[in-house]
Every structure is written in C-alpha cells, then in structure tokens.
Amino acid sequence: MIEPQERELLELVNAFEKKLSESDIASIKELINAREWGIGFENLCTQLYEFEIPIPTEVYRRIKAIGQYMKIDRNYYTQLESHQSSASINTRSTSDHG
C-alpha cells in the first residue's frame, strides 16, 4: 500500500517531469519508492534550485508545506522561494534542463 507521503512526493516529482532530466526524475523516484522520502525531497529541491526551474507559486507552497510536515531542513525549500513564477508547470522553454 502506498503511503500518503510517498503519493504526495510522487505527484510533486511528476509535476516537474518536463522540467528536469529523465535521469534526475528517475533517481528521485527511486529514492521515494525505496521509502527514502526525505532524501528524495531534498534532491528534488536541489535540482530545482541548481537548474533555476521556475516554480508556480501554488507549487512552491506545496513544496514548503511538505518540507515542513516532513521536518526537512528549511534551507532546501526556502532557497526555491526566489524561483516562484506565475508560469504554468507544464510549459517547457528551450533553456530548461533536459
């Protein structure tokens, strides 16, 4: 049976499938599926930050809520605050990592 944390994290990762490389997505999902939820979340945040992926405000709020709920070091998700945008998560530009 899938745990609520796992489902929430997989939904979040799936939202960025068109923004991050296939290998990044696969490695994050592998961690989540292995019940390494915290490490998977930290890696997702790190990749989003390093590749300067725009994050819709509502998705950032979700990331922050998950991080707080999981008691993850707040530096992982607060660094993403400056990446908030009103852009749709489903669009991909030529400058996106991929």
User: Unreliable stretches, pLDDT < 50, 5 or more residues?
Assistant: 91-96
Radius of gyration: 12 Å
Integer tally of domains: 1
Strand line-up in the sheet with most strands: 1-2
Number of helices: 5
H and E string: HHHEHHE
Number of strands: 2
Strand content: under 5%
- Spatial separation of the terminal alpha carbons: 32 Å
Concise summary:
By secondary structure, the chain is mainly alpha-helical. It has helices spanning 4-15, 22-33, 37-50, 57-70, 75-78; strands at 55-56, 84-85.
Which helices and strands, and how do they pair?
Blueprint: H1 4-15, H2 22-33, H3 37-50, E1 55-56, H4 57-70, H5 75-78, E2 84-85
Parallel strand pairs: 1-2
